[in-house]
Amino acid sequence: MQKCCRCVSLQKGVVAIGVLSLICSSLLMVGYGSAAGTLEEHVNACRDGEAKDIMGILPSCEELADTSTLLVARIFVYVQVSVWILFFIFSILLIVGAVKGRSGLLIPWLVLSVVVITVIIWAGVRASLTRRTYDLLACVIASLVCSYCCFVVRAYSRFIKRQALMPIIVPTYPHTRLCCENPYAHAGEIRELPPAYSFKTPTSNYPAKKISLPTGLGVKI
After folding, report:
1. How far apart are the C-alpha atoms of 102 and 162, rounded to whole Å?
2. Of 82, 104, 155, 220, which is most buried, counting CB atoms within 10 Å of its CB?
3. Does the keyword Transmembrane helix apply (predicted)?
4. For residue 78, is pLDDT > 60?
């Protein structure tokens, strides 16, 4: 996969997924937090004969009369609040990891998303057994969307790892210029040293210079 939805880059797609999951997790966190806050009030109201389930997501008073059902409802609500708080935090890490190109920050979101997809599939199975068509359709759509988002994030994580393992190409030069090499000469051609630093052997063109030795008496031989 080279692009997300065949129109934007993987990095932008992961950032968009992070923003979307951030919004969804914040909404669910507030919703289940409100349910957890009103659960005990709803239970006390059911004992008095009046239900106070404002959001309509808590079990009915007849179901809460059973102790095991009440315990399951409490565990479910508090677990949901904890999961969506973690999902909110991991969504922030996902956005930061996508912007900075750090694959390690994408892993927590991927792991928690797999757990959420598993729960959605389990809810879809229960909806199919009880023949709740709309709930089953919602679970199927949610599982497909979450699976595609996980696939995009996983593809971007692999792309970051490939970029990190890519070797750095260092330019090499076939010929190293020496300090005494003619910069305008061809490769391998050495310029002639200056006369002051060159040693010339006596030849016919350059005869050896005769040096007269002093005699100590002021007369040169």
Report:
1. 12
2. 155
3. yes
4. yes
d(CA 98, CA 195): 65
Contact 83, 116 (CB under 8 A): yes
**Per-residue pLDDT tens for 143-200?**
999 999 999 999 999 989 888 776 656 556 555 454 445 555 554 444 554 555 444 5
What is the signed CA dihedral for 15, 90, 72, 28, rounded to 10 degrees? Answer: -40
Q: Which residues contact 190 (CB under 8 A, 6 or more apart)?
A: 178, 180, 181, 182
The 10 Å CB-count burial string (b at 16+, else e) for 120-137 is bbebbeebeeeeeeeebe
More confident residue, 180 or 116: 116
**pTM metric for this prediction:** 0.68
6-12 mean pLDDT: 86
CA 161, chain centre distance (Å)? 9
Pairwise CA distance, residues 177 & 191, whole Å: 11
Can you tell me whether residue 165 is helix, strand or coil? helix
Residue 203 in domain:
no
Domain hosting residue 99, numbered range: 8-165
Number of structural domains, the chain? 1
Write out the two tokens for 146: 């979450």
Percent helix, percent strand, percent coil in the chain, to nearest 5: 60, 5, 35
E strands, the chain, are 3-4, 8-9
